[in-house]
């Protein structure tokens, strides 16, 4: 009972981890990431969860908001810039449950959401991850 825990990493820490993950994305992909912003929220709201077919807020660690590059055109002006939202509490829970380094978890989610920017589906990304193992 004598063990003490430090303060959980805050939104600023998550933003720094996300920026570090972006910095490690290699060319030619990195050249197409300009303008993507990263936002940190505690949890996804009910509307967002419903939109992605989830009920439990701890199930969603990140989300890409925007039009994939392969669907962009000059006729889509007026839309918000693409952004990635990281959900801090679900990531903290996964970190505690799995023991995987927080930096690795955040990098995994950032790379996954960047994949959506390039038009990859979840199935495409899982296949790529499986092939890389």
From TrEMBL:
Gene3D superfamilies assigned: 3.30.2010.20
SUPFAM superfamilies: Metalloproteases ('zincins'), catalytic domain (SSF55486)
Pfam families registered for this protein in UniProt: Zincin_1
InterPro entries membership: Zincin_1, Zincin_1_sf
Name of the protein: Metallopeptidase family protein
Organism for this UniProt entry: Novosphingobium aureum
């Amino acid at each position: 009972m004598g063990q003490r825990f430090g303060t959980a990493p805050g939104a600023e820490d998550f933003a720094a981890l996300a920026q570090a993950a972006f910095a490690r994305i290699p060319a030619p992909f990195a050249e197409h990431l300009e303008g993507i912003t990263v936002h940190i929220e505690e949890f996804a709201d009910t509307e967002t969860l419903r939109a992605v077919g989830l009920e439990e807020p701890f199930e969603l660690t990140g989300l890409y908001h925007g039009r994939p590059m392969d669907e962009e055109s000059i006729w889509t002006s007026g839309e918000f810039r693409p952004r990635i939202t990281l959900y801090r509490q679900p990531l903290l829970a996964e970190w505690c449950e799995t023991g995987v380094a927080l930096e690795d978890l955040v990098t995994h989610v950032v790379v996954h959401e960047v994949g959506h920017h390039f038009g990859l589906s979840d199935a495409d990304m899982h296949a790529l991850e499986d092939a890389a193992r």
